Amino acid sequence: MEKILDVKNLNVDFSTYNGTVHAIRGVDFHLNSGETLAIVGESGSGKSVTVRTVLQLMAKNAKITQGEIRYHDEDLLKKSEKQMDDIRGNKISMIFQDPMTSLDPTMTIGKQVAEPLLIHNKVSKADALKRAEEVLRLVGIPNPKARMKDYPHQFSGGQRQRIVIAIAIVNYPEILIADEPTTALDVTVQAQIIDLLKELQQKIGTSIIFITHDLGVVAGIADRVAVMYAGKLVEYGNVDEIFYDPQHPYTWGLLDSMPTLDTDDQNRLNSIPGTPPNLLNPPKGDAFAPRNAYAMEIDEEEQPPFFKVSKTHYAATWLLHPDAPKVEPPKSIQQRFEKYQQMLGGSVK
Amino acid sequence: MADEKTPIVQVKHLKQYFNIGKANEVKAVDDISFDIYKGETFGLVGESGSGKSTTGRSIIRLYNPTSGQILFEGDDISKIKNRSPRMKQFRQQMQMIFQDPYASLNPRMKVKDIIAEGLDINNLSKNDDERTQRVEELLNMVHLNPEHMSRYPYEFSGGQRQRIGIARALAVDPQFIIADEPISALDVSIQAQVVNLLQDIQKQRNLTYMFIAHDLSMVKYISDRIAVMYSGKIVELASADEIYNNPLHPYTQSLLSAIPVPDPEVEKTRERIDFDHKKHFSDDQRLQEVQPGHFLYCSDEQAKKY
Ligand SMILES: Nc1ncnc2c1ncn2[C@@H]1O[C@H](COP(=O)(O)OP(=O)(O)OP(=O)(O)O)[C@@H](O)[C@H]1O
Ligand SMILES: Nc1ncnc2c1ncn2[C@@H]1O[C@H](COP(=O)(O)OP(=O)(O)OP(=O)(O)O)[C@@H](O)[C@H]1O
Ligand SMILES: [Mg+2]
Ligand SMILES: [Mg+2]
């Protein structure tokens, strides 16, 4: 499989009033051509910063201290601003987490959706507007012809989100980076948007990076999943490996925190205790250790490397070291293991 | 638990239209009526664009209602004027956590001042130290680092900004909070922490919530009663369990069938129920009680079936 995007040892710092925030601390991942990679993880763990760095859309106080971002055969970090302009919104486009900040409040939405076409494709204005209307209908804006003349504040949160999606796909990008694209949508519209993205993927082979907190959505859309914590990847693998055979205690904690329709509302929800580390002074050892019920002495001392679970599945936890003691994961996780064994016909581990 | 049926908020035939009389007129909220009881969590779910946020924003009087009434503790607040002393008093009792955390936080203000704004307006802190201490307390409550007090909103991740909005709403000790998608940008573990927190505060202070959200598993968990909106109308209203175990409206059924489940096998085989707007709406329908405590938007004819 061709790697269309390959991010190597990415490090990003922010300078702030209180000192330097080490937001991204050596992130490696790749995106295969035509696949959907989901990135999940702690709020503040660096998902948005990572993908914004790919397009070099960073805050002024950000600095890439190390790394490489290979797109086809080139390093995007070596491109000029002008070259990046040709790529952004054209070959690689992005749906931002905050729809209001990526929409221009003073421009009608029809013009905003048509704009990438006019910039990159040199089509006539009339054609661009026609295509904009089509795409707005595709993402489910009712009465698009009339509403193209409205401004962003005149739409609901979910409608704005759909407008942002329309802008991102109007040029049929090669890579689509979607940062929480469906968070503001009801589940039926969310399902329609996901179908639409899948369709786009089949039709033109778009490769997708999908960031979301909704693990249900991940289960439905992802081919592979990467889990982030405190500026690092802690686990990645195929969707089945992450959902049925998770190895990192942080991944366990996430999967165990989700309420389901059967959760008893008299009980408190499970959550991972404690707070994320302060990235002004990242800890010497494993950043998750203070919140990790399974932490060992070595976790305080040394950051765990990635251990191989399968050809496609890796996790950075000392629990996978051959000398580590066997531990008992949360009950809901054990149930996932059991289901996996059944699915595989009991043939593994 | 809710006190037996003492309403804190009563909404009566509320209509909220935009661009009235123009081609792009929107009947965002179109004649809805419901009560919210003291101490309960009232969940509001529904189609994107169905009028949930508008309902919340009308109740907290960010708009002048097109028609209808809103009562808060028995007082009609639908016509009180902006900047009047009554409005000020009422704004302290009722707070809103906004859906779009970025747009609702002033980008030029430090987080400390954003959170303390309500304290300042209502003279709730005696001096600077007390003010700072209160902000620290609030930041801790929502699991943010007090060291971040002097940062600006853009220096935070999406989920962190959302928690700033929550801290701001809690600052003035309100009785009623409208939470518009308060946890959607948080990872599931922090969602759980924030929901546990909201429930703890609710118990301590007998707070009432209107909780708007798309995550139906979470809404079921947190709500006592749930209203389902579609196209400016409430199409169904019942206890949380009743909505999930015995959904009557086809839109509710469609919504429930689309809840994503964190299990790839389940997702591969999922069958969604489609909802066809045209088939299910007619002019002779209204919200009526078809079973005790269970309200359905339907015609009198249809109501007889239950
Ligand atoms: N401009 C900035 N200045 C200083 N710190 C920043 C800035 N932008 C982001 N950060 C910090 O970098 C870290 C990573 O932020 P990022 O937005 O990537 O998180 P995220 O994983 O996308 O979280 P969420 O799920 O809440 O959106 C956070 O701790 C955040 O506070
Ligand atoms: N200021 C406004 N001017 C014109 N139309 C508006 C305005 N505010 C909202 N609307 C429209 O009113 C309808 C209801 O919007 P609202 O924001 O209440 O929806 P919602 O149920 O909160 O949706 P979401 O789940 O997407 O946030 C939508 O069709 C929206 O486009
Ligand atoms: Mg983010
Ligand atoms: Mg809304």
Give a summary of the structure in a few sentences.
Chain A has 349 residues and is an alpha/beta fold. Chain A has 13 helices and 12 strands. At the A-B interface, helix 3, helix 7, helix 8, helix 9 and helix 10 of A face helix 5, helix 6, helix 7 and helix 10 of B.
Verbal overview:
The complex is a heterodimer of chains A (349) and B (306). By secondary structure, chain A is of the alpha/beta class. Helix content of chain A is 35%, strand content 22%. Chain A is built from 13 helices and 12 strands. In chain A, the strands form 2 sheets. An 8-stranded mixed β-sheet of chain A has the order 6-7-8-3-9-10-12-11, sandwiched between helices. A 4-stranded antiparallel β-sheet of chain A has the order 2-1-4-5, with helices on one face. The mean pLDDT of chain B is 91. In chain B, helix 3 crosses helix 4, helix 3 runs parallel beside helix 5 and helix 4 crosses helix 5. Helices cover 35% and strands 25% of the residues of chain B. The longest helix of chain B has 18 residues. The two termini of chain B are 28 Å apart. Chain B has 306 residues and is of the alpha/beta class. In chain B, the strands form 2 sheets. In chain B, strands 6-7-8-3-9-10-12-11 form an 8-stranded mixed β-sheet, with helices on both faces. At the A-B interface, helix 3, helix 7, helix 8, helix 9 and helix 10 of A face helix 5, helix 6, helix 7 and helix 10 of B. The structure holds adenosine-5'-triphosphate (2 copies) and magnesium ion (MG) (2 copies).
